[in-house]
Amino acid sequence: MKQIGRKIVSGVVWTGVEILGRDGVNLLVFVILATLLGPESFGLLALAMAIPVILAIPVQEGLPDALVQRREVDDDDLQCVFWLLMAVSVVLAAAVWLGAGRIAALFGEPDLEPIVAWLSLVIVLRAFAAVPTAVRSRQLLFRRFAIR
After folding, report:
1. How many angstroms separate the CA atoms of 126 and 128, rounded?
2. Confidence (pTM)
């Protein structure tokens, strides 16, 4: 029981370090981009980024969490979830890429089209990382997340 208690405490500490580090880096990137881009360009980037972040939710939540919670997980489970998430993310990214012009028109910002199109790749990148992240969470390797 002491072993699991230590893992829990270690997990909490390293998760805190990860959150503080990630938020600190995000704040630094936010300040740098806001300074370099100016208000109009930064606003376009923020608007464009909302779309892939929202559409990446189905590939980051649900199935990866199920991998963490299942009592037993084998290679077939991991591969099945990985390829399913990759397929879903490619479809979502393609839909965003192809619909970038309509999204830009919806917001009345023609400059938004190429930004939205290229940021659609974020969906695929998040899907690519979902299964390895779930495996590390399952193994309680929170230190690696924090260092990352």
Report:
1. 5
2. 0.68
